[in-house]
């Protein structure tokens, strides 16, 4: 990014750090010639926060958690409706909790239901697997100590318990490294009684955007609270699976064991109610950094759940000589209940989203307020595919050549609702394929129309059909990004309807799609069996594909960087709904940038900086500028390019990046320019009003830079799309103009209009240059550039 192999780390650690060229280290303190020193580029690299080591590949298994956490931040803007906002957050936290329960329940179904209860209890299935011999009962019903169903279940419970503990450990480990970063304290507010600092009002006295709040990037307390609740929920799910299975037998037999099962069930119900209360009681506190700790009830919740799990293990392992395992594991209706609850929660989120959108209508909001509900639905669907896929594949492995769930093999198979969900999966894939075909035709038609006029943007160029067709199709493909809300909405609605049909089919018929009911035509029965078998394979294939991608990312650094781009977008937001989601790197990166800019400008009172960011780096740059106090912000200019601030973030996260917050940032920044191209599928114009006579947007820039072969470009110029904005001459021009507006007295700086000039209180000092966005190579500042600080917004280094 710095254009020089000789670099040194100025500050930071191996995870994220600021770098300079070796010759620029300490440039501020060295004597210099002229009235002001030259620009000193500085690079901030945060790549290890998203794709650093091989363990990041395992985050792919947390994808449903990340998606539902994103849905929390997609709520519409809601001025003056705090109760609706709190209800919206509470519903999404409950939805996130249901995903944790679903994941642990799937592990229980595999370990307890399919292996310990069905296969180990079936002589035909256990005989083919010697490793289950010590668990299997004899032909006459006798066997070893472990052959009783309760003891088999107690042993198998170690797998979902270990999964819950692993999720707790990963969340705690990343919580210590990410959410615990200290925010910048140099605000203009007065300290509160508890030692925190309230947010300062905007210069015009209006309320500041949420991203300006001092506690926005400090989610330590909420993540700790939710981690305790979700860990307890996972342990309670395992305990409930053991208790329900054993209590079902004891209630039929009677005696003291039945009483013990009833008491244990009541304790589990009380603990579940406590978990729900903890999840619903408190959301994020962003007005100030919340450094307090929750009470003993929250802190000891996982320990209490662990005690109940231990009691459940002892209860299930109690000797029951006459107990035989037959059919499916009692309590497998949990999956139908979870699917129904998730559907109701998504419907509630949709209703609140519509109400909030009608309260404060923000132009171009994705799906008119339903973006949060649609995204949450897709997260639930992905969780269902993962849980159902692993259950279907394990069942297929255990029952030999039979189709899972049809009853043809030695075991009954997974729960009925999972089999129905597998049956509707091919229908959803057909819909997605149809949408893909529609958009492919749309790109072809739009590209052909645009190709007819592509050469007109290059005066004097001779028309070239192949060149024009390439440019036209690139622009048409880039415009598909604006169709994403429609695709997401249709997919989410279809998923909701098909999921409801699957639950209804499982509950009303009690049969799997491959079983024939009385009077069912043979043709329909055969079609149902084919669809069910195909869906089972597709769900299993999807899960294996995810595992394969994770394994490749674990071994291959280039694949891990590609996956890291997904985390750049998905993990920008704090963990507000799900504590087991991949951690928010911005809670480390934003404080890093703010501390660096604020301390540098205060140390060198006349210092000026240009903070430039590409792609996701422009989002981090805006977030960092929002956190600066007004005095420091007046010393900063912002240069964004290939920026999704308005095109993606403004539509999907209107409460935080909608037109209102972006206009507020524009009012508080003296200098801001944005570069964009029509061929860019991610970046776009900001469409901010030019109230001070200075346009923020410049574009669309010409892409390619030359239509045909010219003296300046003898070889065909490439279509750059989303990358290499620094190669465009407009980049250097706009950066120099920003430096001139910040430092009008600088020698060699281009002359700016008088209305854009703000006198500097002191000569500008050497500047920092932080990195570009995830795909950028960074800005290469010339040694004789105009004075000021050139800071490239955070991103991942390519070398």
Automatic annotation (TrEMBL):
<keyword id="KW-0472">Membrane</keyword>
<feature type="compositionally biased region" description="Low complexity">
    <location>
        <begin position="765"/>
        <end position="774"/>
    </location>
</feature>
<feature type="transmembrane region" description="Helical">
    <location>
        <begin position="418"/>
        <end position="441"/>
    </location>
</feature>
<feature type="transmembrane region" description="Helical">
    <location>
        <begin position="228"/>
        <end position="249"/>
    </location>
</feature>
<keyword id="KW-0812">Transmembrane</keyword>
<protein>
    <recommendedName>
        <fullName>Integral membrane protein</fullName>
    </recommendedName>
</protein>
<feature type="transmembrane region" description="Helical">
    <location>
        <begin position="153"/>
        <end position="170"/>
    </location>
</feature>
<feature type="transmembrane region" description="Helical">
    <location>
        <begin position="487"/>
        <end position="511"/>
    </location>
</feature>
<dbReference type="InterPro" id="IPR029058">
    <property type="entry name" value="AB_hydrolase_fold"/>
</dbReference>
<feature type="transmembrane region" description="Helical">
    <location>
        <begin position="531"/>
        <end position="550"/>
    </location>
</feature>
<feature type="region of interest" description="Disordered">
    <location>
        <begin position="747"/>
        <end position="799"/>
    </location>
</feature>
<feature type="compositionally biased region" description="Basic and acidic residues">
    <location>
        <begin position="1"/>
        <end position="32"/>
    </location>
</feature>
<feature type="transmembrane region" description="Helical">
    <location>
        <begin position="338"/>
        <end position="357"/>
    </location>
</feature>
<feature type="transmembrane region" description="Helical">
    <location>
        <begin position="94"/>
        <end position="117"/>
    </location>
</feature>
<feature type="transmembrane region" description="Helical">
    <location>
        <begin position="369"/>
        <end position="391"/>
    </location>
</feature>
<feature type="transmembrane region" description="Helical">
    <location>
        <begin position="301"/>
        <end position="318"/>
    </location>
</feature>
<feature type="region of interest" description="Disordered">
    <location>
        <begin position="1"/>
        <end position="35"/>
    </location>
</feature>
<feature type="region of interest" description="Disordered">
    <location>
        <begin position="181"/>
        <end position="205"/>
    </location>
</feature>
<feature type="transmembrane region" description="Helical">
    <location>
        <begin position="255"/>
        <end position="280"/>
    </location>
</feature>
<feature type="transmembrane region" description="Helical">
    <location>
        <begin position="57"/>
        <end position="74"/>
    </location>
</feature>
<keyword id="KW-1133">Transmembrane helix</keyword>
């Amino acid at each position: 990014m710095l254009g020089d192999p000789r670099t040194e780390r100025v500050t930071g650690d191996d995870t994220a750090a600021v770098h300079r060229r070796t010759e620029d280290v300490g440039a501020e303190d060295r004597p210099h010639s002229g009235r002001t020193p030259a620009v000193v580029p500085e690079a901030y690299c945060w790549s290890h926060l998203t794709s650093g080591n091989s363990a990041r590949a395992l985050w792919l298994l947390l994808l449903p958690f990340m998606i539902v956490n994103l849905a929390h931040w997609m709520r519409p803007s809601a001025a003056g409706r705090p109760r609706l906002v709190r209800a919206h957050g509470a519903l999404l936290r409950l939805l996130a909790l249901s995903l944790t329960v679903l994941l642990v329940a799937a592990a229980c179904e595999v370990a307890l239901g399919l292996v310990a209860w069905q296969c180990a209890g079936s002589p035909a299935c256990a005989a083919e697997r010697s490793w289950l011999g010590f668990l299997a009962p004899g032909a006459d019903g006798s066997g070893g100590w472990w052959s009783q169903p309760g003891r088999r279940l107690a042993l198998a419970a170690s797998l979902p318990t270990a999964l819950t503990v692993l999720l707790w450990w990963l969340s705690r480990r990343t919580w210590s490294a990410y959410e615990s970063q200290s925010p910048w304290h140099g605000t203009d507010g007065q300290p509160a009684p508890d030692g925190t600092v309230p947010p300062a009002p905007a210069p015009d006295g209006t309320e500041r955007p949420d991203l300006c709040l001092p506690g926005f990037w400090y989610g330590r307390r909420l993540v700790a609270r939710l981690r305790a609740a979700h860990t307890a929920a996972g342990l309670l799910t395992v305990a409930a699976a053991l208790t329900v299975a054993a209590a079902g037998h004891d209630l039929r037999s009677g005696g003291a064991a039945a009483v013990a099962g009833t008491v244990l069930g009541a304790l589990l119900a009380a603990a579940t109610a406590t978990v729900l209360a903890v999840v619903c009681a408190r959301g994020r506190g962003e007005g100030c950094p919340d450094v307090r700790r929750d009470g003993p009830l929250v802190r000891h919740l996982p320990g209490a759940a662990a005690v109940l799990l231990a009691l459940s293990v002892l209860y299930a392992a109690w000797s029951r000589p006459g107990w035989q395992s037959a059919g499916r594991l009692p309590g497998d209706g949990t999956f139908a209940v979870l699917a129904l609850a998730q559907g109701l929660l998504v419907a509630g989120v949709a209703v609140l989203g519509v109400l909030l959108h009608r309260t404060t209508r923000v132009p171009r909001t994705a799906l008119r307020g339903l973006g949060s509900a649609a995204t949450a639905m897709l997260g639930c669907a992905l969780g269902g595919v993962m849980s159902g896929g692993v259950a279907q594949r394990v069942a297929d492995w255990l029952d030999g050549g039979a189709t899972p769930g049809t009853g043809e093999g030695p075991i009954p198979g997974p729960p009925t609702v999972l089999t129905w969900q597998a049956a509707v999966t091919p229908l959803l894939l057909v819909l997605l394929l149809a949408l893909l075909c529609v958009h492919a035709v749309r790109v072809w038609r739009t590209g052909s129309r645009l190709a007819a006029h592509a050469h007109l943007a290059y005066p004097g160029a001779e028309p070239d059909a192949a060149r024009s067709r390439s440019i036209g199709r690139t622009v048409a493909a880039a415009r598909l990004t604006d169709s994403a809300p429609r695709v997401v909405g249709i997919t989410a609605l279809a998923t909701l309807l098909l999921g409801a049909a699957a639950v209804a089919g499982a509950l009303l018929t009690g049969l799997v799609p491959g079983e024939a009911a009385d009077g069912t035509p043979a043709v329909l029965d055969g079609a149902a069996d084919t669809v069910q078998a195909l869906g089972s394979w597709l769900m299993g294939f999807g899960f294996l594909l995810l595992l394969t991608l994770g394994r490749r990312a674990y071994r291959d650094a280039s694949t891990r960087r590609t996956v890291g781009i997904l985390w750049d977008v998905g993990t920008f937001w704090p963990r507000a709904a799900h504590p087991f989601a991949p951690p928010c790197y911005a809670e480390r990166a934003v404080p890093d940038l703010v501390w660096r800019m604020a301390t540098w400008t205060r140390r060198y009172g006349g210092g000026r900086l240009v903070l430039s960011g590409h792609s996701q780096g422009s989002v981090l740059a805006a977030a960092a500028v929002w956190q600066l106090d007004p005095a420091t912000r007046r010393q900063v200019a912002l240069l964004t390019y290939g920026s999704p601030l308005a095109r993606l973030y403004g539509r999907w996260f209107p409460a935080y990046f909608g037109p209102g917050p972006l206009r507020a940032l524009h009012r508080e920044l003296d200098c801001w320019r944005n570069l964009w191209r029509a061929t860019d599928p991610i970046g776009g114009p900001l469409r901010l009003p030019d109230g001070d006579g200075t346009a923020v947007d410049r574009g669309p820039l010409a892409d390619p830079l030359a239509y045909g072969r010219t003296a300046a470009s003898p070889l065909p110029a490439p279509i750059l799309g989303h990358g290499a904005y620094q190669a465009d001459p407009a980049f250097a021009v706009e950066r120099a103009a920003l430096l001139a507006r910040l430092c009008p007295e600088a020698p060699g700086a281009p002359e700016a209009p008088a209305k854009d000039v703000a006198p500097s209180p002191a000569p500008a000092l050497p500047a920092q240059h932080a990195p570009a966005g995830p795909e950028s190579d960074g800005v290469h500042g010339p040694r004789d550039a105009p004075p000021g600080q050139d800071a490239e917004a955070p991103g991942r280094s390519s070398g």
